Amino acid sequence: MAGAYDNRDGYIWMDGKLVPWRDANVHVLTHALHYASSVFEGERCYNGKIFLGRKHSERLLFSGRELDMEIPYTVDQIEEAKYATLKANNLTDAYVRAVAWRGAGEDMGVSSAKNPVRMAVACWEWGAIRPRQKSMPT
Q: What is the pLDDT of residue 111?
């Protein structure tokens, strides 16, 4: 997968369902864009297994609560969403990004508790963070 992140083939899990990558959009007046009311986790998947995946999902929910933004999914549902997204994109080694945000709604004030909390999971190929050493240094 290459090119701009808004123009790729594949699928993104968004608000409970897989949608075509290019259709995973939000409105310009979404609360998160104006007030930074969003949380995310960046995760790595190796050989089909997300490293410390459950801990990341737990932390995502914790972070949402810290912003008074109750994410409407359980840890198990978030885990299912991450693996469904990997499968839909035929990836076993990838970067996984789970993100939740306060969406567009009736309010545009700072708290905007009436606005829906939304969530998405995207994943894409991403090589090694750093090259492996071929031998031990002397």
A: 80
3-state SS assignment for residue 86: helix
Average pLDDT, whole number, for the chain?
92
Amino acid identity, position 70: E
Domain boundaries, the chain: 11-124
The predicted-structure confidence for 96-125, as pLDDT tens digits, reads as follows: 999 999 999 998 888 888 999 999 999 999
- Find tokens 């708290």 and name the residue: 111
What is residue 42's three-state secondary structure?
Answer: strand
CATH 3.30.470.10: does it fit domain 11-124?
A: yes
Within 13 Å and on the Cβ side, how many CA atoms surround 56?
21
Whole-Å CA distances, 46 to 92, 93, 127: 6, 5, 10
Q: How far apart are CA 102 and CA 21, in angstroms?
A: 20
CB 53 within 8 A of CB 82: yes
